């Protein structure tokens, strides 16, 4: 009995720090979510999913269209909201809990593979990912599947896999795939790992069969619903994502992609609209965008590097940790692989590529081949996290990933490599640089490594603060000096959602508003108005039209009407409502995208060009936006 108590105490003591890290993360994100994220404006996709789920539960699912997610998440959120009736705070709470759960499991994933020191450092890098902290406070759809994927990684990285581990992994991936289709990348990773994991081929394929069977059983209700409701297996394709993200495109291609996104066509159809253009974008994403986002080349403020605030430095721990895990040696074979693949890559780039776009192939391809030739050196249960990286990049290069949350799946691997580098590799480097003065496990070495890790984590924390401040206030990042000046001025952040809430409160007091339609320039306005909404961003239709033709969508393209319908509340995929707005919310932001010139006259309610049946209810140009709210009276068209 005393031996059991001792083991229990040792177990609790060992888990104390990772539990404290998790609790600290939970408390901080709960506080920020509760007191510093008051308006549903940035995380507006959560509104779409919540309303879509409510419409499905109400029996009108055939009129729902979601471009880039399956219906699992929306139905879960809408079902829970039947109990809470507060969608904004419900989704924020789910995000906080799931992000905290992912932080907790990250330690035990790494502990399955490495020692406690590496696991703790890896967990810290995972927890201090500024995008994780940022989305932990958002009323969004991103973190529930990440939490489920974290559980699946915990079971698949165990030293000795059992049938129960495979079954639980299949269940977690199956549920996650009904929320985000990116989970397919993890499934392919695990299948690849299971095939390679041992010489027992029969057992390997048995495990593959089990995980696929469980996955498909969990996914089957979604497939059944989609087929019986929309006569489509998934009711999604990558066309919408491609259309809105590709670096290279032209209007006719864009129009065809929009039509494919709105139909039951598949991703292959979208790829073959212009296959040469697809390849041009694919290799741009593969060799420029992905390295830029992961290693922070400085071309954009948005990146998901281990060291977000400093350009290029994130390259060092990733490559260093990778070389260390693969036990790549500086020998003749490695030299041949590096030189031949780098020369071949350079020749191909100079012949048919663009060195300014594809330069990273000269680094990336030799690294990939080195890992492939040394895969036998890699510890078995680290393989899932290593295999994930090339599979994720190769598959997700079909679209251009810009935002940090789109890389969450990869962060299990990136945090692991950071933990390996800073906990194991860096101390050994210090020892080799000054072998007589520094030992890899000396107190001076440990102190120096702790200082370096702390500075990196603090810089990531600063990046996260700027991310929150910029999106909450609507004021863009200018420079580090400017951010320090704002910090020491101690001026309160002006929250961008205040005016949207005021507009919503004003309209909600209008007579019979619950049966009225309001045309809104963004979906986040609709949450604060007790009315039905019509979506329009003032670039639809033809130039030099009339105001009434615009608001009634008379000369809009079919694709524009469809896109408006599926971003309106209620959704109108089948185009059966044909609504006319009773109210119009106009917003003009000089820094925003294109709007028809004639519609910009709406920004001046005193303009003689405003029709007499457009009555001003609200006007403001005190912020970066000009807002005007009109009541439209169709009985007084003079």
Structure description:
The chain is mostly helical. Among the domains are: 2-225, no CATH class; 497-632, no CATH class. It is 59% helix and 4% strand. A 5-stranded mixed beta sheet has the order 2-1-3-5-4. A hairpin with a 5-residue loop joins strand 4 and strand 5.
Key phrases:
single chain, 638 residues, mainly alpha, 25 helices
Ordered list of secondary-structure elements with their pairings:
Layout (H helix, E strand, L loop, with lengths): L1 H34 L9 H13 L14 H13 L2 H27 L2 H12 L2 H6 L7 H14 L6 H15 L5 H14 L4 H30 L8 H7 L5 H11 L5 H5 L3 H21 L19 H11 L6 H21 L2 H4 L2 H13 L9 H14 L14 H23 L9 H31 L6 H10 L7 H12 L8 E4 L11 E4 L11 H5 L6 H9 L16 E6 L25 E7 L5 E7 L6
Parallel strand pairs: 1-2, 1-3
Antiparallel strand pairs: 3-5, 4-5
Helix pairs in contact: 1-4, 1-5, 2-3, 4-5, 4-7, 5-20, 7-8, 8-9, 8-10, 9-10, 9-19, 11-12, 15-20, 16-18, 20-21
Question: Quick gist of this model?
Answer:
The protein has 638 residues and is mostly helical.
Mean pLDDT across residues:
90
Major pleated sheet: 5 strands, mixed
Portion of residues within helices? 55-70%
The tally of helices reads 25
Give the radius of gyration: 27 Å
The N- to C-terminal Cα distance equals 91 Å
- Assembly context of the chains: single chain
| Helix/sheet category | mainly alpha
Q: How many individual β-strands?
A: 5
Strand order of the largest sheet: 2-1-3-5-4
Q: Identify low-pLDDT runs.
A: none
Principal-axis shape equals: globular
The fraction of residues assigned to DSSP E strands is under 5%
């Amino acid at each position: 009995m005393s031996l059991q108590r001792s083991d229990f105490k040792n177990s609790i003591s060992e888990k104390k720090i990772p539990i404290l890290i998790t609790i600290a993360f939970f408390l901080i994100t709960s506080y920020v979510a509760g007191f510093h994220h008051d308006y549903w404006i940035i995380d507006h996709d959560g509104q779409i999913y919540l309303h879509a789920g409510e419409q499905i539960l109400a029996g009108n699912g055939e009129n729902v269209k979601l471009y880039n997610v399956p219906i699992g998440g929306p139905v879960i959120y809408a079902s829970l909201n039947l109990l809470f009736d507060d969608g904004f705070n419900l989704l924020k709470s789910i995000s906080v809990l799931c992000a905290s759960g992912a932080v907790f499991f990250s330690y035990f994933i790494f502990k399955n593979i490495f020692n406690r020191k590496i696991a703790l450092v890896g967990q810290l890098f995972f927890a201090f990912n500024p995008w994780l902290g940022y989305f932990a406070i958002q009323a969004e759809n991103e973190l529930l599947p990440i939490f489920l994927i974290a559980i699946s990684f915990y079971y698949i990285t165990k030293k000795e896999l059992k049938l129960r581990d495979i079954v639980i992994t299949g269940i977690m991936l199956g549920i996650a795939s009904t929320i985000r289709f990116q989970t397919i990348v993890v499934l392919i990773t695990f299948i690849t790992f299971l095939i390679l994991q041992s010489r027992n081929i029969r057992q390997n394929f048995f495990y593959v069969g089990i995980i696929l069977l469980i996955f498909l059983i969990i996914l089957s209700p979604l497939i059944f619903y989609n087929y019986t409701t929309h006569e489509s297996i998934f009711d999604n394709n990558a066309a919408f994502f491609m259309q809105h993200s590709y670096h290279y495109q032209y209007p006719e291609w864009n129009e065809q992609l929009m039509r494919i996104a709105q139909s039951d066509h598949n991703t292959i159809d979208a790829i073959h609209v212009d296959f040469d253009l697809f390849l041009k974008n694919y290799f741009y994403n593969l060799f420029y965008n992905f390295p830029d986002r992961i290693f922070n080349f400085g071309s954009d403020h948005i990146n998901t590097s281990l060291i977000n605030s400093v350009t290029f430095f994130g390259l060092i721990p990733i490559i260093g940790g990778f070389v260390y895990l693969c036990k790549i040696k500086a020998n003749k074979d490695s030299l041949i692989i590096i030189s031949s693949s780098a020369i071949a890559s350079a020749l191909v780039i100079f012949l048919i590529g663009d060195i300014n776009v594809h330069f990273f192939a000269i680094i990336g391809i030799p690294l990939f081949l080195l890992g492939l030739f040394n895969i036998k050196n890699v510890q078995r249960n680290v393989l899932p996290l290593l295999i994930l990286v090339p599979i994720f990049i190769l598959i997700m290069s079909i679209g251009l990933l810009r935002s940090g949350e789109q890389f969450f799946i990869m962060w299990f691997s990136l945090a692991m490599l950071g933990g390996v580098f800073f906990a194991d590799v860096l101390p050994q480097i210090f020892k080799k640089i000054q072998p007589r003065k520094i030992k890899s496990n000396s107190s001076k070495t440990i102190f120096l490594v702790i200082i370096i890790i702390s500075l990196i984590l603090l810089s990531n924390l600063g990046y996260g603060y700027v991310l929150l401040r910029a999106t909450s206030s609507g004021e863009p990042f200018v420079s580090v000096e400017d951010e320090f000046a704002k910090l020491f001025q101690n001026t309160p952040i002006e929250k961008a959602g205040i005016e949207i809430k005021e507009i919503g409160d004003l309209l909600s007091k209008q007579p019979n508003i619950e049966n009225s339609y309001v045309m809104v320039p963004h979906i986040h306005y609709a949450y604060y108005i007790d009315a039905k909404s019509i979506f329009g961003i003032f670039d639809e239709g033809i130039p030099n039209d009339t105001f009434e033709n615009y608001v009634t969508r008379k000369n809009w393209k079919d694709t524009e009407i469809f896109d408006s319908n599926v971003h309106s509340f209620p959704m109108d995929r089948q185009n059966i409502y044909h609504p006319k707005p009773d109210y119009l919310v106009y917003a003009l932001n000089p820094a925003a995208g294109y709007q028809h010139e004639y519609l910009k006259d709406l920004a001046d309610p005193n303009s003689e060009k405003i029709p007499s049946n457009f009555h001003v209810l609200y006007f403001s140009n005190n912020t970066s936006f000009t807002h005007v709210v009109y009541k439209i009276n169709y009985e007084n068209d003079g």
